[in-house]
Write a structure and sequence with these properties.
The chain has 441 residues and is α/β, with parallel strands linked by helices. The chain is built from 13 helices and 21 strands. The strands form 3 sheets. Strands 4, 14, 15, 16, 17, 18, 19, 20 and 21 form a 9-stranded mixed beta sheet that branches. Helix 5 (106-115) links the parallel strand 7 and strand 8.
Length: 441
Amino acid sequence: MQLQDGVYQFPGGISALELCEKYGCPLYVYDYSIIERQYKRLTSAFEVKKLKINYACKALSNINILKLMNNLGSGLDTVSIQEVRLGLFSGFSPDNIIYTPNCVSIEEIGEAVKLGVRINIDNISILEQFGALYPDYPVCIRINPHIMAGGNSKISVGHIDSKFGISYHQIPHVLRVVEATGLTIEGLHMHTGSEILDTEVFLRGADILFAEAKKFRDLDYLDFGSGFKVSYKNDGIETDIEDLGRQISKRFNFFCKEYGRDLTIMFEPGKYLVSESGFFFSKVNVVKTTTAAKFAGIDSGLNHLIRPMMYDAYHSIINVSKTEGTKNIYNVVGYICETDTFGENRSIHTIQEGHVLCIKNAGAYCFTMASNYNSRFRPPEVLIYQGKDFLIRKRETMNDLIHNQVEADILQPTLKAGEDLLNTLLNGEKQKEILESKEAQ
């Protein structure tokens, strides 16, 4: 999204404000050209014979995004059986999907076996059960390298106290299970955390992975996870992918020579591919000045974008309705009935009620972590592709909110009037939805 002649526009000259008029606020918008740019930058950074990028779809799992990732040549990194099924539905072949669950039942892993996808196991108990049930099904092992890394303790997953992975000190136990069950280990995997800036962190983990890989003679690939940092503050502070690519490639190629054959090197980026593509638009409901601060209260909350409250994450915020002139200091807050802050002490062009604000870097772990907290509807999603805008998820309605609720056979006489009123309202809402759908077409 670029500012041109005082108007924020997407590729094809699509006005951000016009999108908000067309689809309403709050609204998620994704620019595919940024996703494509990030994917090509990543694949160009490594000089190896076999490279595979598996998009971590937990970052943004809309099926249209998945289809475009598949079209780019990406594989898919999944963490639940539901994500596996979304991947298959979106056109990924089973051998292009890797399933890396944590603390799930052996029954769920059995479902993944039936679907034929690659499976990554991260604890010895499950490995033993898997070997007894499916000794002929090749698997990958997730190693915990005991490295503390990541932008927040909640997204550091490779340290000694983490629930993720099998400690690399326990590899002798893994080898005994493999020998006893006859399992084939096709890959080793490692992921230390998210928002990692220092290349040295990846290199330390790589050295551990290379050392343990020499103990397995039938490997097809090594999966280095991801965790690449993106520039949330638009300050250029991010993982130097080109430097990382050069250094990892050199070490990987040397390892393959020692190993005796060329393996595939895998990465599983999520945030790196989609974060910068996302823009979240919300309308200002109130501007409120207190003795301590000036608040801009928007028509959204942590129910739509929880990262600032959950991870203390920073997202740039701009005023799309006013792009020049005086700036003031605001706390941008939401409408949820608890502390609900998107940004504190932000210098933003003077905000008035009715203005539209944009929260940037909203492509990763934003909509996918959205909820119906306070019984609010989740917003629509729009994709900008080849100069056109496409609705890829409708705004929720009251029907969506109560769709799976079951009204028990209690207090029926007293609820009859309320039921009749609600049905009347829902029918009216359904008619409105049909009309809006026809207008959109």
